[in-house]
Design a protein that fits this description.
Elements lengths: L1 H16 L8 H12 L5 E14 L9 E2 L1 E14 L3 E16 L2 E19 L2 E17 L2 E2 L8 E13 L2 E10 L18 E12 L1
Antiparallel strand pairs: 1-3, 1-10, 2-4, 3-4, 4-5, 5-6, 6-7, 6-8, 8-9, 9-10
């Protein structure tokens, strides 16, 4: 778990530091600064919203008749523009995932780092697409803590979404498709290889500064 969290932080640090690398002396730093300042949506900010979570995969029937679990996500973002069309947006999010089954809720809490390519279709509308990694920090069944050992602490996947921007406010929606298996052991502690992963639809409001 610590290795996964360290990798997640290194990915965020690498993405945010990319635009500040000095490879040709002070003139190159000034050039990069001017390039970033011309982008209409560079900056930092906070965001949060509603998550509609469930599981997907060919083995999800092992969990029975599952349905969506409504929860939340929240965090911070930084956006670095390269011209008027393209920008890079790393984020650090606290995200709740899981599913419901027969009025019972299974919840998995993650710290996640998406690193998204942002393509500005207009000055106020953009498409987001990119990879993300995450670390599971807790698991609960009906508000009771459950053992993390059967689960894969490290997760990875892809995100895609749309965002509208008015002034400093952003409203968007995104689908997060996990590619890492949720579990590595069954309830008896036996190693398993099953195709069950998280999937989340997010709707969020952000404010940039």
């Amino acid at each position: 778990m610590r290795k996964g969290f360290t990798l997640m932080l290194l990915l965020l640090w690498s993405a945010t530091g990319f635009a500040q690398i000095d490879v040709e002396g002070p003139s190159r730093v000034q050039q990069n600064h001017n390039l970033l300042s011309r982008s209409p949506n560079s900056g930092i900010g906070i965001k949060g919203g509603v998550s509609l979570a469930n599981v997907h995969g060919s083995d999800k029937d092992k969990f029975g008749n599952v349905s969506n679990h409504t929860s939340f996500h929240a965090g911070v973002f930084a956006q670095f523009g390269f011209g008027d069309f393209f920008s890079l947006q790393p984020e650090l999010l606290y995200s709740r995932k899981g599913f419901e089954r027969q009025d019972s809720v299974f919840r998995y809490d993650y710290l996640e780092v998406p690193v998204l390519a942002v393509f500005n279709i207009t000055n106020n509308f953009s498409v987001h697409l990119g990879p993300q990694v995450g670390v599971m920090v807790s698991a609960k069944h009906e508000d009771q803590e459950i053992d993390l050992e059967p689960y894969n602490a490290f997760d990875y996947g892809a995100s895609a979404g749309l965002e509208g921007q008015v002034g400093r406010f952003r409203l968007g929606t995104r689908y997060v498709h996990s590619l890492g298996d949720l579990r590595k052991e069954d309830s008896s502690g036996n190693s398993i290889d099953e195709n069950i992963m998280n999937g989340v639809i997010q709707v969020y409001l952000g404010v940039s500064f």
